[in-house]
Amino acid sequence: MVRKLKGSRPAGNANQADIVKQAQAMQQQMLEIQEELKNKEVKSSVGGGAVSVRVNGQKELIEVKLSDEIVKEAATDKEMLEDLILSAIKDAMTQADELAESEMSKVTGGLNIPGLF
Questions:
Q1: What is the CA radius of gyration of the chain?
Q2: H-helix or E-strand containing 34?
Q3: Whole-structure pTM value
Q4: Range of the domain at 53
Q5: Is 84 among the domain residues?
Q6: Angle of helix 78-108 relative to helix 11-37, nearest 10 degrees?
Q7: Quick one: which of 53, 48, 38 has its CA closest to 90?
Q8: Is 2 a member of any domain?
């Protein structure tokens, strides 16, 4: 008969408790990084500076700037302006993804955790 001493617990439970504590600490660090990403920005410029956009690390579009020249050209080629704006935004969003991934990898040690980004 195996007798369990009062107050003792199997070694496996201690390891599980440590893992849970580590996971909670990692989760807190990731939340802090996500908050910090609000204040980090990336910029994309296309068409020789005709269109530029700024996006923060949480992929929020902050600013769109158009040069005077591209606005004048848009009167005759609206589709070109739309394409340039779209291109600049896509590029900035890709940069924001890369920034977030880089910052999060500091916590995750480079592990790719599905659904994290």
A1: 24
A2: helix 11-37
A3: 0.72
A4: 12-108
A5: yes
A6: 150
A7: 53
A8: no
